[in-house]
Write a structure and sequence with these properties.
Blueprint: H1 2-7, E1 10-12, E2 21-26, H2 30-40, E3 45-50, H3 61-72, E4 78-82, H4 92-99, E5 102-103, H5 109-114, H6 116-125, E6 129-132, H7 134-138, H8 140-146, H9 157-161, E7 166-171, H10 176-189, E8 192-197, H11 203-211
Parallel strand pairs: 2-3, 2-4, 4-5, 6-7, 7-8
Antiparallel strand pairs: 1-3
């Protein structure tokens, strides 16, 4: 599932959308969104995920969301967009206003997964922090090492990461393999390592309100 979500849109939807609601999500939090929906037992909620690679090109997120919301208009009773601002510089919100839909709170996935107040406190404590989520720990090699060509040009590491002091792994789950990957990522970048168990953070109340039809 994860490799596909990096490159292409994926739907987790029922055959008949009548009477159903939809979460349009970033592919980078597909597992988390599906886990929260499954835990809530919300059989009426469908999920569509835009490609996770948009995570690396945030300027393209508003247009991709706009296109998909336009395509799906009238097919669902309500739609919720499971993105924060995610580096769009405020460009996503006018799109959502036009379509009359809400999104996740805050500026990025680190914030809503950790809890925006908790992330603000972490960042104030040490601004020179590189963050990983479960998704980024799982795909660190593809999204960081190979994407930035650090495997073939290790001399770039101090140029790109020399101002960081620590790597904080914001763990959504207790997964020994992901813990190992995150710790290895910190060692690869030469950063102090810290793990913080966040769970699903503000995804839970946000999706709960949407599934129950309560506006924020």
């Amino acid at each position: 599932m994860s490799e596909t979500l990096l490159e292409e849109e994926v739907a987790f939807a029922g055959a008949d959308a009548q009477g159903r609601v939809l979460v349009l999500a970033c592919g980078a939090i597909a597992r988390e969104v599906l886990a929260v929906i499954s835990r809530g037992g919300w059989a009426h909620v469908d999920v569509r995920c835009l490609p996770a690679k948009l995570h690396s090109t945030p300027d393209r997120i508003p247009a991709a969301v706009d296109l998909k919301l336009t395509e799906l208009a009238g097919r669902y009773e309500r739609v919720f967009v499971a993105y924060a601002d995610c580096g769009t510089g405020g460009a996503l919100d006018p799109v959502l206003e036009r379509h009359g839909v809400e999104r996740l709170p805050g500026a990025h996935c680190y914030g809503f997964l950790a809890g925006n107040d908790a992330w603000d406190a972490m960042q104030e404590d040490e601004p020179a922090t590189f963050y990983l989520t479960d998704f980024l720990a799982r795909h660190f090699d593809a999204l960081v090492v190979r994407s930035l060509k650090l495997d073939s040009h290790p001399e770039l590491k101090p140029l790109m990461f020399g101002n960081y002091r620590r790597l904080v792994y914001l763990a959504q789950t207790d997964d020994v393999d992901l813990d190992r990957r995150a710790e290895a990522a910190a060692a690869f970048l030469g950063l102090a390592y810290e793990r913080r168990r966040t769970g699903y953070g503000e995804l839970v109340p946000s999706l709960t309100r949407f599934a129950r039809g309560v506006h924020a």
